Amino acid sequence: MDFFSILLVAVSLSMDALAVALSTGMCVKETRLRDAVRIGLFFGGFQFGMPVVGWLLGRSVASSVRQVDHWIAFGLLLFIGGKMLYEAVRARIRDEECDIDPLARKRLFTLAIATSIDALAVGIGFAFIDVRILPASLSIGIVTFLLSAGGYLLGKKLGVLFRKYAEIAGGLVLIAIGIRILIEHLLGA
User: Fold this and answer.
1) Rounded CA gap, 25 and 147, in Å?
2) d(C-alpha 103, C-alpha 172), whole Å
3) What residues contact residue 128 under an 8 Å CB cut-off, 6+ apart?
4) What is the pLDDT of residues 8-47, one digit of tens each?
5) Which of 81, 18, 84 shows the shortest CA–CA distance to 47?
6) CA distances from 114 to 56, 108, 117 (A)
7) SS in 3 state form for 7-69?
8) Contacts of 112 (CB under 8 A, 6+ apart)
9) In which element (H, E) is residue 157 found?
10) Tens digit of pLDDT per residue, the chain (189 long)?
């Protein structure tokens, strides 16, 4: 997988975290750089680690599924992208989301895990198509850090407007990459 594709995957996987960061920024009275860095570290850290864990799991079974690995990668990306699209279309921002402390450590930890489960599945897919996991995971983590921190800082102004569209774009890109992987394998490219 080339660098541009990895970057597209990184941006796509970051869309859930960006949406959460935007909504968190909407809920605070004042956005501070220190809090933006904290949110970026939570989300970026988990988005870095989960593909590595997924890759390790995938490598443990990769040799036994070599004949269908491209279908597995395609299916995982299609599922994750479709899930993102579904959640974006069904999402509603509720007032009670702002009732709790949006910057509480337990809340950020829970949200970081929830938004990085997709990255775990992508890591499994990466194992099947022999992606070098450390550079890929580092790219995903850095992109997520930057988008989450920036999304938090811009949340007051842009949260309501862009939250839904960020997740839709991310889902579409993951589906497109899955289709590309399948086509390249079927055509022998």
Assistant:
1) 13
2) 30
3) 58, 62, 65, 69, 70, 72, 73
4) 999 989 988 888 888 788 878 888 999 999 999 999 999 9
5) 18
6) 20, 10, 6
7) HHHHHHHHHHHHHHHHHHHHHCCCCCHHHHHHHHHHHHHHHHHHHHHHHHHHHHHHHHHHHHH
8) 17, 42, 43, 45, 46
9) helix 133-187
10) 889 989 999 998 998 888 888 878 887 888 899 999 999 999 999 999 999 999 999 888 877 776 776 787 778 778 877 877 787 777 655 444 566 677 888 888 888 888 888 899 899 989 988 899 999 999 999 999 999 999 999 887 775 566 667 667 767 877 887 788 788 778 875
Q: How far is CA 102 from CA 27, 111, 138, 148, 160, in A?
A: 7, 10, 26, 14, 16
